[in-house]
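Bit of a strange request maybe. I'm writing a small parser for structure token strings and I need a real example to test against, not something I typed by hand. Could someone generate the tokens for this chain?
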Amino acid sequence: MSLHPSVAAVRLAVRRGLGDVPPGAPVLVACSGGADSLALLAATVHEARSGGWRVVGVSVDHGLQDGSAEHTAHVVAQMAVLGAHETASARVSVDPDGRGVEAAAREARYAVLGQLAVHVGSTVVLLGHTRDDQAETVLLGLARGSGGRSLAGMRRAFEHYRRPLLDVARADTVTACQVEGITYWNDPQNLDPAFTRVRVRRRVLPVLEDALGPGVAAALARTADQLREDTLLLDALAEELLVAARRTGGLDVSTLVSAPLPLRHRVLHRAALEAGAPPAELTRAHVLEVDKLFVGWRGQRWIDLPGPLRAIRRDGVLVLERP
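Reply from user aminoacidic:
Good idea to test on real output. This should exercise your parser:
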């Protein structure tokens, strides 16, 4: 009996994503109970038979919906049935604090996953984001005018996190679960149009597919890969420039004023973040205003930045300080 293409696609992605992990190493799989994460867990368990890894399934309860504790317990039991060597669950407290529920939940989730990884001695945590998630991320970045870094989408790997399914369609994870007889959860929040990502998924992408033809999600994901390569190079060059421009108390104006604009802007943005500007509040408009202290210098007093911070040019040095 031949292997179903969707099951094969998920397993191949996991095999490639864990190719450098030595036998015996613990691998954490974050599992919400949805099709994506359950397909990921099942594939990891299968590939671990030859790879020799110890699969630890982890479910995080954000406490945002009625019955979330019962749902988490069900997912833990389901992971055990699917063959995870160990299972764990964690309850987190989500405090939006002006960032939005999704961002706060993501931050809390990653924090507890990182703690669990340390606890079991794992350097690998698998996340179930798919190619469709990547396409949605790119579209959201485009709509918000967030620049190349946002359009580069989700990283395939960062710190101890890996996303092996970024080349796999959501339809394949759903089909893989159906073929393997895995009952998955449809999160009602994934149908709630109050969330921007849900509107992109259910309204925007279908319109694009209808108007432009199939393959829009795959094309957006390819765009993200290409932009990520460019972004990584520019970030590396900007880091070199930042090191060269550092002076006691600030950044050397003469070093930065002759630098290529994309690099100087990256340096100014990073310097403002390091000085304490909140990432969610620091915009390109702020960076452009600070840049006027280089290219439009007329003896201005300072530029106000979120934080609060002030950017001021003093004796040939750009200083970022508290007012």
